[in-house]
Amino acid sequence: MPGENLSRDEARERAALLSVDGYDVSLDLRSAVGDGPGDGVRTFRSVTTIRFRCAEPGATSFADLIAPSVTAISLNGKDLDPGAVFDGCRILLEDLGDDNELVVDAQCAYSRTGEGLHRFVDPEDGEVYLYTQYEPADSRRVFANFEQPDLKAPFRFEVRAPEGWVAWSNGVGELHDGVWRFAETRPISTYITAIVAGPYHYVTDSYSRTFDDGTTLEIPLGALCRKGLARHFDADDVFLVTKQGLDFFHDHFDYPYPFGKYDQAFVPEYNLGAMENPGCVTFREEFIFRGKVTQASYERRANVILHEMAHMWFGDLVTMEWWDDLWLKESFADFMGTFSAAEATRFAGAWTTFANNRKAWAYRADQLPSTHPITADIRDLEDAKLNFDGITYAKGASVLKQLVAYVGRDAFLEGARRYFKRNAYGNTRLGDLLSVLEETSGRDMAAWSRAWLQTAGVNSLTPQVLLGSEGRIDELAVLQEAAESHPELRPHRVAVGLYRRSSEGALERYARAEVDVDGPRTVVAELAGAEAPELVLVNDDDLTYCKIRFDEGSLATLRERLGEISDPLARALCWSALWNLTRDALMPARDFIDLVLRFAGRESDIGVLQMLHAWANSALTHYATPEWRDVGGQLLAEGALRELRQAEPGSQHQLTWARFFAAVASGEAELGLLRDLLEGTAKIDGLEMDQELRWAFLEPLASHGVADEAALSAELARDDTASGKRHQVRCLAARPSAAVKAQAWAAVVESDALSNALVEATIAGFAQPSQRGLGAPYVAKYFSVIERVWEERSIQIAMDVVKGLFPSLQDSQATLSATDAWLSEHEGAASALRRLVLEARDDLARALRAQACDVAAAG
To answer: Does the model's pTM come out above 0.70?
Structure first.
């Protein structure tokens, strides 16, 4: 990997020297089908012509290409010796002229890791499917280029594909004499170019919009997936959300969609949620639901569709100059995905999901030792790869929500409109956006940026209530704190809500005030004289990004009446705050689990309920004292089964409780019920045992030794699909056997034979909370191999191995010491690798602190 890295300094130097006029890329993908070569490396021919200018004639630069071999290279009509100028990653370009033409004829490799041009063989029917994934810098695995976001250019692609295939790219394609030729793109960055090819199932629709000036925009729409998933593909709903999103962004951005057609490809073995390639967006195919799912899954898909659509403007039309300003696209897309979902689709409660789910990712990331400002210091591509994180996405989106509250909605949207028009098809930095927001809002954006974008860490806001003699508020203040490591106190525009029981018994808000919190203590003068509250909720309506704390009276109210809060968003904010208290070792894990057992059954928002299940399971696995885990697990299993039986038959709540019951089942009776439900000898009214739920029940049975290899093979025969294979591999690795663990470890660590999806499945099954003893021998093994894995494997697979196999279940001081020893002895290891280990170490230390808190609660 180090040889494939590109530094920010190198990119800046090359951008100052070169400007690109256009690319012609010809790919011959006919080798994708049929028997591969004997050495196992399957390649395709890639011929690239790049026309570019040089500001300093006679200068030297380089082009990027990662390929097994290069057949020919010519620069300005002169043939170059590939052995002399190509080192496997870069092509040396010497004595450049004013105007230049580079032609590279290479043999590039199909990928099995989801990076570059990924090749997937469907086990169901043997069909081959291809797609590309490049961000941040993997287009160089498919064609020669200048791989950095600020060297934009128009692209013309052509593809020779096997007979019967269809190919898609960013532009409209037509088949001529066996070659798919695509319309030239507008100037775009290399990382958002795309190719999808294969016998995909393809559905079409169209979008039309007439603007105030009388002009009409017609956008051809397409949606595609593997043939094996066609029977599950609800393309109509995908198109519905797509059209709603296009209407929303046209209403608010005043800049028509600029990239012609809009195809959305749902592809197999995808590493990400989705990717915003203009005109050819790619998604993980798990967004096509093979079984019954809750509305939370449809909301998540809609949010991703809208997130990627927002990128057509924030990221594709206007692109950051370098990955330091990744937030200029990801934070905005994350914010706009929720903003548009809440206002333009059936998912009106999207901000509740954001507050409870998305921000939890940000809070975790912002308390890691690797936390960074939203505008990060990205030294190279390895740094960039790791910064697609909770800070860049979810914290950035949260801060933008705060920005809207700070400058006003109209000023924010007008700033966006001016930003697009001034910088269309160009590249920008932080200052370019701040300048237009200053124009439209009249606010000092430099001070706001210093506080919110250029510092790290999360503040805590706590109410302080002083009551007078007549039971009314004498003074209410908001106290702001920051961690010692990141002491910045920020300006927060917050709403403070006061809650008490209504005549019907619900906890409802009876007073609210907005205030600018600035400094360690801010008095909320508007609430003086109000009747005494039972609950004070700082950051009501979730306007800012902070950790909410409670005064003693409010916390006591939540312990007794949490389920009675009538407003879903307020309730979600309280749950999130209680989870942060648990993570911060301020609330015992068993207390949080008790709250879930008492109040989660009354939760109406299905996305919040699913998050509570995940948190409760995490509290039991990582934060509860080991001596209490069996008791806590039994309590959760009993509670889940009780709620499962009480849920409305056939409802999404019933399905959610069924999945949670499977996740926490460990006793003989619970496992027996799962087995009987699978075999059909037991039934719960309304619970449909579709294939996805069958696999969800099989994993705990496999991990506890109830379902053996024969049972898993039989289930695969029932579901002989790509999805079924992934489930089977995960369940096989979950079995409680030392030999099984050794086999799974070898398959992931010592071999590169598995595809990215099967690596992910094997890792997911390897470590089971009920098998801590089986994992103990792998602590030393982990630290002995991770540096080699980082050097030898692709960065995506290396990240999966380093993060996924960290021995977090070996939660002891000894494991913490082993981690510290590795960090101390490997100060020269790749910074991205060290970051991953430091993050895992921090999670482990947090777990040990939480366990100490839980021990104290036990007395």
So the answer is: yes
